[in-house]
Design a protein that fits this description.
Strand content: 15-25%
Order of helices and strands: EEEEHHEHEHEHEEEHHHHEEE
Helix content: 25-40%
Radius of gyration: 27 Å
Number of strands: 13
Largest sheet: 7 strands, mixed
Number of helices: 9
C-alpha cells in the first residue's frame, strides 16, 4: 500500500519517519512510514512498527535489560566446557563419543574414501523430533545442498519403504546416471551436570531438568508400571509404533523393572540400526544405485552447548557387498 505526493527532490533515497504516529486529523495512529524520493516524486509506504521504525522510542518490556544481560553471559558452544562429572559419565556409558561437528567431519571423510561426496550423494538424516537434535542438520546444510529428513520420535524411522524411496529419488546423478546415499539415523539421550542420564536442563526451563528422550522416558515409565500394551490410544500412533518396535523381541519385557533409561535407549538404538538396514535393503533399486552408506549412533546432549555422538554402526554397500568401515 502506498501513496504518492508531489515533490521536487531530484534524488534517490529512503528514510523512515514517525511524523504520523500521533493521533489526529489526517494521521494514522501507531504507524510508521517509509519515504522514498525517486525522480522528483515522494512515495510513502506504510511499515509495521515491528519492522524497526525509527523516530520514536520503543518501550522496553519489563526485565528486558536483565534478560539481555543474562543472554550475554551464556557461554558459546564449546565441547571443552563439559564438566568432569559429565565427561566421566559419558565415557563410562558411551565410550568413544565425539563432539558432533568432529563426528560429522570424520563421517564425511570416511564415506568419501568410498566415493560418496557432497556432489554426488543425498544425505538421509534422522533424529528425534526434539529441538535439541537440530544442530546436526546445520552441520549437513554447511556441506550439502540439501538433505532428506526422516525425523521421528526417539529417532526410530517410521516413514516406511515408500517414504524412504522418495528420499532416495532426490539423489544427484553421476555421469552414468547412478545414485548414491548416506543414511544417518540417531537416537538420543541427555546427561545433566550431575552425570545423570536421561536428564537435561533446557535453555529457558532452568533450574529444573527435562527428560531426554521424552518419548523413551514415557515408554520407560510404562515399562516400570508393567504396561506392555501396544494398542494405539487416541492419536498417539507414532509413540505406540515406537513402543511396538522396541518391545517386539521381548528382551525388555523379560527384564521388566530392572530396565533403566540407558539400557532402553541403547536397545532402541539396536532396533533403529536393524530397522534402517532392512528398509534400505527393500528400498534401494540396485540398478539405479552405485553405492550407499548407513551410519547409526546416539546423540548425547550435555550443557557445554555442543552435542556429542556415540557411533554404533557404519558400513558401505557397493555392488551388493557390505563393508564395515571406521571413522578413524
Amino acid at each position: 500500500m502506498g501513496m504518492e505526493l508531489s515533490g521536487v527532490m531530484p534524488c534517490f533515497s529512503t528514510a523512515t519517519s514517525s511524523l504520523f504516529t500521533n493521533s489526529g486529523s489526517g494521521r494514522v495512529p501507531g504507524k510508521s512510514w517509509s519515504i522514498v524520493f525517486l525522480n522528483a516524486k515522494v512515495v510513502m509506504h506504510r511499515m509495521p512498527m515491528a519492522l524497526g521504525a525509527t523516530g520514536s522510542a520503543r518501550r522496553e518490556r519489563p526485565g528486558e535489560k536483565r534478560e539481555m544481560r543474562e543472554e550475554n553471559k551464556r557461554m558459546p558452544p564449546n565441547p571443552d566446557n563439559i564438566t568432569k562429572t559429565r565427561r566421566l559419565s559419558m565415557d563410562q556409558l558411551f565410550p568413544g563419543t565425539l563432539p558432533e561437528p568432529e563426528f560429522v567431519k570424520r563421517l564425511l571423510g570416511a564415506v568419501e574414501k568410498h566415493g560418496l561426496t557432497p556432489a554426488n550423494t543425498i544425505p538421509i538424516v534422522g533424529t528425534c523430533r526434539d529441538a535439541l537434535a537440530s544442530p546436526l542438520y546445520e552441520e549437513f546444510k554447511r556441506v550439502f545442498p540439501g538433505y532428506f529428513n526422516i525425523v521421528s520420535l526417539a529417532g526410530l524411522p517410521q516413514l516406511g519403504t515408500i517414504g524412504l524411496r522418495a528420499g532416495l529419488g532426490h539423489s544427484p546423478l553421476d555421469k552414468n546416471g547412478k545414485e548414491r546415499y548416506l543414511v544417518l539415523s540417531l537416537t538420543h539421550i541427555g546427561i545433566d551436570e550431575n552425570g545423570e542420564a536421561g536428564k537435561f536442563k533446557r535453555p529457558g526451563r532452568e533450574p529444573t531438568s527435562s527428560q531426554v528422550c521424552g518419548a523413551l522416558c514415557a515408554l520407560h515409565s510404562q515399562i516400570q508400571n508393567e504396561d506392555y500394551s501396544t494398542e494405539i490410544v487416541d492419536d498417539n500412533n507414532e509413540f505406540y509404533k515406537l513402543k511396538e518396535a522396541v518391545l517386539q523381541d521381548g528382551t525388555l519385557k523379560r527384564k521388566g523393572k530392572e530396565v533403566d533409561i540407558v539400557e532402553l535407549t541403547k536397545h532402541t538404538l539396536d532396533v533403529t540400526t536393524e530397522t534402517v538396514s532392512k528398509m534400505m535393503e527393500r528400498a534401494v533399486d540396485k540398478e539405479a544405485c552405485a553405492s550407499y552408506a548407513v551410519c547409526t549412533g546416539m546423540q548425547i546432549h550435555e550443557e557445554s552447548g555442543v552435542n556429542h555422538i556415540h557411533l554404533h554402526t557404519l558400513y558401505v554397500v557397493k555392488d551388493g557387498k557390505k563393508e564395515h568401515i571406521s571413522l578413524v
